[in-house]
Amino acid sequence: MICNRTVSKAQDLVAKVSDRGNVLAVGYQDLAGQQFDVVVNATSASLHNELPPVPASVFAEGCLAYELLYGKGLTLFLRFARDAGVKQLADGVGMFAEQAAEAFTWWKGVRPDTAAVIRQLTVPLK
Fold first, then answer.
1. Cα dist from 20 to 14, 15, 89, 99, whole Å
2. Bridge partners of 39?
3. Is 57:81 a contact under the CB 8 Å cutoff?
4. How far apart are CA 114 and CA 100, in angstroms?
5. Domain that holds residue 71
6. What share of the chain is helix, strand, coil (3-state, %, to 5)?
7. Residues pairing with 66 in the sheet
8. pLDDT tens readout for residues 32-83
9. Dihedral in degrees, nearest 10, Cα atoms 28, 29, 30, 33
10. E strand intervals along the chain
């Protein structure tokens, strides 16, 4: 499920990935009563210390809350998820490092070890 405040934007994205399975486009108002195993905050809300308008009920038991913003520690979104009972929290450091490694591999033909970079950039999520 892809959620956006502008449903037509979610629909455009769904159209691009529809060959990969059954993906729905919804607005925030459609999240009521839904629960998910993984909730990814891909909005710019955390850049402004804001929270996307998701209800705390979206986090299923055992859920992973993933914040694409990295290096900021426990963002408002991750605190919200933690306060809703989520125990698995992650930020975008790993994705950032792995994307850079893929680009480096493409240009140089050698894939760098990302573990040290991830350790260096990681900010504790407490």
1. 10, 10, 26, 21
2. 65
3. no
4. 9
5. 32-92
6. 45, 20, 35
7. 40, 90
8. 999 999 999 999 999 999 999 999 999 999 999 999 998 888 999 999 999 9
9. 110
10. 2-3, 25-26, 36-41, 59-67, 88-91
Residue count of the chain, please give it. Answer: 126
Residue 23 has which token pair? 């993906």
All residues at 6 or more sequence positions from 57 whose CB lies less than 8 Å from its CB, including other chains: 32, 33, 34, 35, 84
Structure tokens at 46: 């955390």
- The domain that holds 55 is classified in CATH as 3.40.50.720
Place of tokens 């038991």: 61
Residue at 63 is within a domain? yes
